[in-house]
Amino acid sequence: MKIPVDAIIPEPKLTQYLLVPRSRNDKSKFLLQGGFTAANPADLELAIRRLIADNEAIEDRTDRFGTFYEVKGMLTGVNGINLGVVTIWLHESVDSNFRFITLIPD
């Protein structure tokens, strides 16, 4: 199955989490290898949307919040470098929306 291209990717998830250096679970250094920075969060969102358009989602687990899916693939950086990633998505049981949860280096 495919995650819908109009799935929700909350801007704060990009601008206040993934692209910000953190003491734990820092992903900003990894994403910097692809040219993604706090100055270009829209480029990261576009790359994530391309990733889900090109790759199948695999069901992971279900809990009270909904069903979680993983989408693995290559995230194409703004500098042309490809980064292997796993993205996590939630198909929410409350409203049936698909929501981006996180990205993990693969």
Give the key terms.
106 residues; alpha+beta; Nuclear Transport Factor 2, Chain: A; 4-stranded antiparallel beta sheet; 3 helices; globular
Please write out the topology.
Elements: H1 11-18, H2 28-32, H3 41-54, E1 57-63, E2 66-76, E3 82-92, E4 98-105
Antiparallel strand pairs: 1-2, 2-3, 3-4
Short description:
The chain is α+β, with helices and mostly antiparallel strands and 106 residues long.
What report would you give on this structure?
The chain has three helices and four strands; from the N terminus they run H-H-H-E-E-E-E. By secondary structure, the chain is α+β, with helices and mostly antiparallel strands. It has one domain: Nuclear Transport Factor 2, Chain: A. A four-stranded antiparallel β-sheet has the order 1-2-3-4, with helices on one face. It is globular, with a radius of gyration of 13 Å. The mean pLDDT is 97.
Order of H and E elements: HHHEEEE
The number of distinct structural domains comes to 1
Count of DSSP helices? Answer: 3
Kindly state the number of beta strands.
4
* Beta fraction: 25-35%
Low-confidence stretches: none
What sort of overall outline do the alpha carbons produce when their principal axes are compared? Answer: globular
